[in-house]
Structure formats: C-alpha cells, structure tokens
Amino acid sequence: xxxxxxxxxxxxxxxxxxxxxxxxxxxxxxxxxxxxxxxxxxxxxxxxxxxxxxxxxxxxxxxxxxxxxxxxxxxxxxxxxxxxxxxxxx
Length: 90
Hints:
- By secondary structure, the protein is mostly helical.
- The protein has helices at residues 2-7, 22-32, 46-54, 58-71, 76-89, and strands at 11-13, 36-38.
- It has a single domain, classed as Rossmann fold (3-Layer(aba) Sandwich).
- Its EC number is 2.4.1.227.
- It comes from Salmonella enterica subsp. enterica serovar Daytona.
C-alpha cells in the first residue's frame, strides 16, 4: 500500500479474505482518501471492475493520484528507525 501511495497511483484492491482482514484494513485508508477502490472478493466481477473503470475519467484518476501522494509517508522508514533508536536508549 505504501508503495502505491508514494508513487501516486490510483488503485483497485481485492483483499484476501482472511479472518483478520489485514489486507482490507491496510487498503482502507487509501479508499477513504479517495485514492483507491476496494472490492471484496464476492463483489469482484468483470462487470464491477469494468463499471468502476468506465466511471474514472482522466481528471478523476489525476485527483486519485494526488490523494494517494497526500497520504504517503515517504520517510516512514526513517521515522520507525528513529523511534526504535529512541526507545532503545531509554
């Protein structure tokens, strides 16, 4: 998910249906930001995807790309490393 956000790409996600729904929860912030669409596996059909894609104009895709970049955290690795170092020192 983070790579898609950092690259500023609109996306369609079809999360694996697992009891903890980890993939769904990871994709949800991008959908909530208007940068992606989530299809649960039962709703993932050719018709549903075709309808979704047909409804996305060039302008809509550019807006989705901007929204994806807006939720990206490009320095996430550095933030985590800094926090780990900070905690290790205490």
